[in-house]
């Protein structure tokens, strides 16, 4: 507008206002940069950690769980004197479950806000694009949720998944159990429905492929887009097949909708396994307590006896009034992993420090609330998941045998 | 495809189509009366669903009872919206500008819902949520049946209102030829306002029906507006019976296609029907030119 030759008064005024606004913005930026330069060597500045989470949209339910976990971690660390003697401060943006948004968020956090560290977002779909940004800026990227195999096939060397196992291996214990059943009891047919999402498909297909290899017949194999709200047609197909086993590659609400739709059709499988949703504290109420026998892989149980877990559960419960779920625990684990590296290396800032943190994590094992974690070169954790089942309305760990609270119930009671 | 699955899919399709029909009826009414493309229709739908959810989950009131409040409320909002906003648009660019205006309203409502209730997905949990009736081996969920019944009764009421009341005649006259309607003494402005309110009242009904058996979240309305727009074009813009028939046909089609094609591709039926309609019969299959035949 300043270049226009229009002599009208209002244009000139607006032009001047623009210039003024621009200079004000420039001043502010300079001031902000000055501030962070001063703090570079100081020990009083908080360590700022940048995070983008899906607080609205498709993944808002687990996204908020991750947020609770991160915030609990920050609060507990700060109560204990902070990291390297500095307080930690979280800067959380809402990516609305949108992959374009998550990229922009991490760009802003790293380049513009100059955060000292970043933590990962929720869900594989968002982890891959954001890990790429972190890689470009040479940032350490520990994430609580990108469990699909494809995350580890992108050539990232800065990424670490802060949970015991990747998606494809979540059901390993259950697959072994089913295939070990005596011939006459073993289920023969399987129906699969999965969200078109790398994590959800990873979990479901991991189990599906192992069962198919073990001789079970796959009768239904459906994929639905993440925005699906009407599950009746899929449920109709599954009910019509009358498969012995139903596997749901689900996140949260899709599992609730699918299970209710299956119940509406009177379908009673011998075994029902759904990812993620059954580990959510809201799950039971959402499907009207008709949860009997539902199985789910879980990377976490509040009852686990790992050294830091009892403390975490107690202090988390103090803050929120209820024990943490898996999303909260994975987020907390992310914090623990980064904190271990920061304390060991002795720095938390952008630049060379990040590579030192990455190198340290590649070489060391970290004790967390989900057990000791170590990673291969691609950031893939080297463990397996527990299997939980709803027994009399309570979540019970049923597999593997050595950590089980009770034996699995098969065939499952009617829901 | 087995016979029982076919029957089951057919029943699900009819139940879904019934809901589409009610929702599309409101949408086509705005266009018929005022040449307004009402993008915010489905946003109001979700708002009504949220009110039903809120009443059910937080206040312990049966979701159907919220209709007593939401239907008059939405009617009032519709009349006010027409009086205060839509009428100010210039007639020459009304259709274009109404897209922008109602788009903004849709965003506003979406933001409002997110602000008040958060972005979390919600679902009404009723004691009979998972119960069903069995008919010839197929099962009909009770909640879906209630939703369908609500839609059917509302559509019937709308039809009777349009066909057999003086207001309905005035409304239809306004749809068919506004100038002629004015000449015979119909206050088309007033009628248009009431027509707009009527359209929005169907959103209240549809939203409540929807809330009985669906997950809701603030941005869900984008998921609905596409198929609904396609339905009213296929049915012939402005024609309520056309919209209802197209809704049933496409709803059943979607449900049946889901069996061989899966969920992802079955959704495309609406857009394929839209393209085919625009190529073969742009005025729609039931509407005639702008709903001369009502």
Tags for this model:
heterodimer, A: 415 residues, Rossmann fold, 2 domains, five-stranded parallel beta sheet, 12 helices, 14 strands, globular, disordered N terminus, B: 294 residues, mainly alpha, ABC transporter involved in vitamin B12 uptake, BtuC, 3% strand
Overview of the structural elements:
The complex is a heterodimer of chains A (415) and B (294). With 415 residues, chain A is of the alpha/beta class. Chain A folds into two domains: 47-165 and 304-373, 3-Layer(aba) Sandwich (Rossmann fold), CATH 3.40.50.2300; 169-298 and 386-403, Response regulator (Rossmann fold). Helix content of chain A is 41%, strand content 17%. Chain A contains twelve helices and 14 strands. Chain A has helices at residues 9-39, 60-79, 99-112, 124-136, 172-179, 198-213, 232-241, 253-264, 283-286, 309-320, 326-345, 352-363; strands at residues 47-53, 88-94, 117-119, 141-143, 159-161, 189-195, 217-224, 245-249, 271-274, 295-298, 366-368, 371-373, 386-391, 394-399. In chain A, helix 11 (326-345) packs across helix 12. Chain A starts with 8 loop residues before the first helix and ends in a 16-residue tail after the last strand. Mean pLDDT of chain A is 85; it is low at 1-19 and 24-41. Chain B has 294 residues and is mainly α. Chain B has a single domain, classed as ABC transporter involved in vitamin B12 uptake, BtuC. In chain B, 71% of the residues lie in helices and 3% in strands. Chain B is built from twelve helices and two strands; from the N terminus they run ααααββαααααααα. In chain B, a hairpin with a 2-residue loop joins strand 1 (132-135) and strand 2. In chain B, helix 1 (3-34) runs antiparallel to helix 8 (188-211). The mean pLDDT of chain B is 87. At the A-B interface, helix 2, strand 7, helix 7 and helix 8 of A face helix 1, helix 10 and helix 11 of B.
């Amino acid at each position: 507008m300043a270049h226009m030759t229009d002599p009208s008064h209002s244009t000139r005024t607006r032009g001047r206002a623009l210039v003024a606004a621009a200079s004000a913005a420039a001043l502010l930026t300079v001031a902000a940069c000055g501030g962070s330069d001063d703090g570079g060597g100081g020990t009083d500045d908080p360590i700022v950690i940048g995070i983008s989470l899906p607080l609205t949209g498709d993944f808002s339910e687990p996204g908020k769980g991750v947020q609770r976990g991160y915030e609990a971690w920050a609060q507990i660390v700060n109560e204990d004197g902070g990291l390297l003697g500095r307080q930690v401060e979280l800067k959380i943006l809402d990516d609305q479950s949108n992959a374009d948004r998550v990229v922009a968020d991490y760009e802003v956090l790293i380049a513009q806000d100059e955060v000292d560290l970043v933590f990962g977002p929720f869900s594989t779909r968002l982890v891959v694009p954001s890990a790429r940004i972190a890689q470009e800026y040479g940032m350490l990227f520990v994430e609580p949720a990108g469990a699909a195999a494809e995350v580890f096939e992108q050539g990232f060397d800065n990424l670490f998944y802060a949970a015991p196992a990747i998606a494809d291996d979540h059901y390993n214990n259950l697959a072994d159990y089913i295939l070990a059943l005596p011939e006459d009891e073993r289920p023969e047919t399987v129906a699969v429905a999965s969200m078109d999402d790398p994590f959800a498909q990873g979990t479901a297909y991991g189990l599906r492929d192992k069962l198919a290899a073990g001789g079970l017949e796959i009768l239904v194999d459906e994929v639905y887009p993440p925005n699906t709200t009407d599950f009746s047609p899929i449920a109709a197909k599954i009910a019509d097949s009358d498969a012995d086993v139903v596997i749901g590659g689900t996140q949260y609400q899709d599992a609730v909708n699918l299970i209710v739709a299956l119940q509406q059709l009177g379908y009673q499988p011998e075994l029902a396994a759904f990812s993620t949703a059954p580990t959510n504290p809201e799950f039971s109420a959402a499907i009207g307590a008709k949860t009997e026998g539902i199985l789910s892989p879980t990377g976490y149980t509040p009852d686990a006896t790992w050294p830091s877990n009892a403390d975490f559960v107690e202090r988390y419960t103090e803050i929120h009034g209820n024990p943490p779920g898996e999303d909260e625990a994975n987020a907390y684990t992310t914090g623990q992993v980064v904190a271990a590296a920061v304390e060991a290396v002795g720095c938390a800032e952008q630049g060379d420090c990040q590579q030192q943190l990455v190198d340290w994590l590649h070489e060391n094992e970290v004790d967390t609330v989900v057990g000791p974690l170590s990673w291969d070169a691609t950031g893939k954790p080297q463990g397996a998941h527990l299997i939980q089942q709803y027994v009399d309305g309570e979540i019970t760990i049923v597999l593997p045998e050595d950590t089980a609270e009770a034996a699995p119930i098969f065939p499952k009671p009617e829901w | 495809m087995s016979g029982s699955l076919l029957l089951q899919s057919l029943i699900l399709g009819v139940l879904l189509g019934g809901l589409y029909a009610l929702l599309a009826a409101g949408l086509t009414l705005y266009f018929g009366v005022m040449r307004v493309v009402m993008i915010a229709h489905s946003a109001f739908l979700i708002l009504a669903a949220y009110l039903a959810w809120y009443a059910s989950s937080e206040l312990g009131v049966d979701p159907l009872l919220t209709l007593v409040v939401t239907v008059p409320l939405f009617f009032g909002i519709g009349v006010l919206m027409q009086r205060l906003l839509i009428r100010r648009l210039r007639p020459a660019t009304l259709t274009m500008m109404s897209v922008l205006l109602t788009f903004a309203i849709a965003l506003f409502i979406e933001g409002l819902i997110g602000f008040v209730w958060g972005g979390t997905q919600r679902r009404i949990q009723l004691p009979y949520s998972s119960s069903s009736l069995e008919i010839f081996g197929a099962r009909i969920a009770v909640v879906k049946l209630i939703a369908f019944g609500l839609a059917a009764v509302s559509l019937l009421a709308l039809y009777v209102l349009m066909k057999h009341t003086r207001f309905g005649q005035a409304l239809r006259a306004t749809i068919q030829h506004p100038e002629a309607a004015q000449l015979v003494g119909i206050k088309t402005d007033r009628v248009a306002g009431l027509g707009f309110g009527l359209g929005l009242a169907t959103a209240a009904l549809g939203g409540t029906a929807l809330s009985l058996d669906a997950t809701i979240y603030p941005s869900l309305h984008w998921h609905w507006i596409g198929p609904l727009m396609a339905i009213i074009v296929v049915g012939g813009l402005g024609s309520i019976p056309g919209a209802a028939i197209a809704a049933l046909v496409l709803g059943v089609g979607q449900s049946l296609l889901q069996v061989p094609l899966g969920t992802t591709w079955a959704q495309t039926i609406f857009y394929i029907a839209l393209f085919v309609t625009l190529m073969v019969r742009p005025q729609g299959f039931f509407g005639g030119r702008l709903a001369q035949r009502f």
